[in-house]
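Researcher: Sequence of Glutamate/aspartate import permease protein GltK follows. Predict its structure.
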Amino acid sequence: MSVVPLKHHGRLVAAVVLVVVLGGFVMSMVTNPRFKWNLVAQYLTNESILNGLLTTVWLTVAAMAIGIVLGTIVALMRISDNPVLSTVASGYVFVFRGTPLLVQLIFWYNLSALYPTLTLGFPVGPSLAHFDANKVITVYVAALLGLGLNEGAYMSEIVRSGLAAVPGGQREAAQALGLSSFRVMTRIILPQAMRVIVPPTGNQLIGMLKTTSLVSVIAMEELLYSAQLIYTTNFQTIPLLIVASTWYLVLTTVLSIGQNALERHFGKSDRRTQKSKPMMVEEATVSNAGI
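Model: Prediction complete. Tokens:
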């Protein structure tokens, strides 16, 4: 007896309707002269746009590096048995995760209004050096402080969840072998936690790429602000926004490909681990049967 497959007429109708709607939308964009696609093509390789693109790239990399390092430190502080370290880390996450990033950027940019002079020295004792806050807190420093410190709060939760995913018996077994706490963390815990940490970190990196557009409010010439400078002079707002969006899509696509590759890599590692578990159970069963 042959099996007759189910016919999904609803899916076919929905797919046809969706293709027609999307086709009409794309056609309206292509044929609408107000989009000015010739200007979009012209400004895609504009020198100011490309300089802003490079600024966006290095700002993304630098801010994520700060966030990852700081997040790892804060995560270790939060799981520490020292109540002072744990409380300070929790307070840091509470403040920087609980306030808008835009507010933080504006705050760091205007830090000189609170502290016109930055002093390097001891809390009680002589001062070693004095610095003009306006010269130290430039738009670049303010952007890195705002993005990096904010990202550190989110990365600390990602790292902490990865560390919590490692079974507690791993730490106990390593300590029973006489390994120091540092070696246990760097050799045993962190390598296993990376399977949980890496995928969401990829999402954070893609999010950081787009979040860098917020620094345009403090007049940092990244990709979006470079487009804004151009369309405030030629009044071609929509074409320049399309140019910026196109480059964001290109960079996001590249990062997404890298993220998918990492997820497949760590997914294979998880599958190998899962396959080894039944074998271990079977060996243990045979061993017990022979006793």
